[in-house]
Amino acid sequence: MTESRSASPRRYAIRLWSVHHARALERIYNGLAHLLLRLHPMFAALGYQRFEPPVRFLEAAVKKPLFGCRMCGQCVLSSTGMSCPMNCPKQLRNGPCGGVRANGNCEVIPDMPCVWVQAVAGAEKMAAGDAIRQVQPPVDQRLGGTSSWLRVTQQAKAPSSLQGPRR
Amino acid sequence: MTPSPPDRADGQAASETSGRDINPAGVHLPLDPLPGHASRGRLERILRRGEFAVTAELNPPDSADPDDVYDRAAVFDGWVDGINAVDASGANCHMSSVGICALLTRMGYAPIMQIACRDRNRIAIQGDVLGAAAMGVMNILCLTGDGVQTGDQAGAKPVFDLDCMSLLETIRTMRDEHKFLSGRKLTAAPQVFLGAAINPFAPPFDFRPLRLAKKIAAGAQFVQSQYCFDVPMFRDYMRRVRDLGLHEHCFILCGVGPLASARAARWMRTHVPGVHIPDHIITRLDAASDQKEEGKRICLDIISEVKEIEGVAGIHVMAYRQEEYVAEIVHQSGVLKGRAPWRKEPNPANEMAEARLEESARAPDQALQALAAAAAEPET
């Protein structure tokens, strides 16, 4: 939370840019997911764990500047209009709280645009924007600091081999 | 001046209406569960029967004196269908909602226990849900909670382990699937009527009805709104709610309350997150000679408008530090239409505790003898 409090307005500007280009980012994401799925035989053969450090590094390098990513390990950007809900001071995963200011800014950090007001705007641009209506489970703290990309790939290929956030 | 509750004024009509919520086998017995009902509570019964419900918020005391809670609950006696026990509202320290509910259920009141995700993680919350249900809490309201910066403990660590949505889903799973979030089995599920909050008066406005839909999908059976001072805005929200058919899946209670003065209104507008007070309300208060009286009149005007909106199932009166006016406001608004809300319902837990006390009183010598025998045994 201290991180976002000290964040410069420029940081918000990049995040806002990402939301503004949610449609394009959605396409890139879909392409990336496809690519990772095709690499699955290699990941599986050599062991997913071996790829964790480099993929995690890459994922953080891309997502931290673009989205203010916190590496929660259970990315929901495609369901939140490319606006990362971990930047919400309440880390809400299911929509804006009742405290959003009249100008659309955050209740807790008055000069920050509400993450969820942005999410709604981003979702409207996306092809699969309706995913914002799904109820998301709570964050599984055990997955923090791990690669979401690898997990999603592994889960898609072998859902039983991995335990996702338990419901 | 508090008017006397309608059942005192008109005993016959009162017993007719509340008689439907009495166990025919005896007034002291808990209610039988009705088909399709989640709880055995009277708030759910009233709403499902299509009556206009009234709930109110109890101002939590900054004290350890149970009388402070009972005094504050007494002003609502016979006027409301449920009393909200707030969970550190505005992130200010007060007696806990669990504590307030323990006191209220002991006296047989029908509390609506609020749970805010700000202060406790999923382990603490699920434990509190079981404890509350065991004490006789039939209604639970799931909230995200105001940020810690608004309260008197701004340096506190915000928890927000769950959000209101996952909290709703967690309690619904406990109730309907008899298991914790982890999947571990419960031996007795909490039978609670699940509620949530809505704020139609904060952006993003287009998403607010969809958020209600999400809350309903997560388990909300009734919702209470933030203070409504802007009726056209509320009406617009309700129109979109009806377009989505949400009012048929959830009981919507509109939040109302008297403003004490124009100054108080201005303060609320800037200090209480999510409260929207239009300028014309403040102008009207400013122009009045008796601002407190005018605040009440504005509240009554708003009630008379919102109660006519299709899909509004009741009102939630938040008269912070003016709780003594709740009875007057409810009476003058006429929303109860002569109905007398049940005042206190017998708590089966009391009887259980008495039976156990009696049991242990019957066999105190035995226990002492066993202890003495154990003590006399030579240590090896």
Provide a compact summary of the structure.
Chain A is mainly alpha-helical.
Structural commentary:
The complex is a heterodimer of chains A (167) and B (380). Chain A is mainly α and 167 residues long. Chain A has one domain. Chain A is built from 7 helices and no strands. Chain A has helices at 2-5, 9-20, 22-38, 40-46, 48-67, 115-125, 148-157. The two termini of chain A are 26 Å apart. Chain B has 380 residues and is an alpha/beta fold. Chain B has one domain (6-347): TIM Barrel (Alpha-Beta Barrel). An 8-stranded parallel β-barrel of chain B has the order 1-2-3-4-5-6-7-8, surrounded by 7 helices. In chain B, helix 7 (164-176) links the parallel strand 4 and strand 5. Chain B starts with 5 loop residues before the first helix and ends with a helix. The model of chain B is unreliable at 5-17 (pLDDT under 50). The A-B interface holds A 1, 89-102, 104, 107-108, 114, 116-117, 120-121, 132-133, 135-139, 166-167 and B 117-118, 122, 144-147, 149-150, 158, 160-166, 169-170, 173, 181-183, 197-199, 202-204, 206-207, 210-211, 213-214, 217-218, 226, 273-274, 276. Chain A: Residues 144-167 have a biased composition (Polar residues). Chain A: Pfam families: DUF5981. Chain A: Residues 143-167 are annotated as: Disordered. Chain A: This is Methylenetetrahydrofolate reductase C-terminal domain-containing protein. Chain A: Residues 58-141 form the Methylene-tetrahydrofolate reductase C-terminal-like domain.
Please provide the ordered H/E string of secondary-structure elements of chain B.
HHHEHEHEHEHEHEHEHHHEHHH
The percentage helix of chain A is 40-55%
Estimated structural class of chain A: mainly alpha
Largest sheet of chain B: 8 strands, parallel, barrel
What is the count of structural domains of chain A?
A: 1
Count the beta strands of chain B: 8
| Strand and helix order of chain A | HHHHHHH
Assembly type:
heterodimer
Rg measurement of chain B, Å: 22 Å
| Total tally of structural domains of chain B | 1
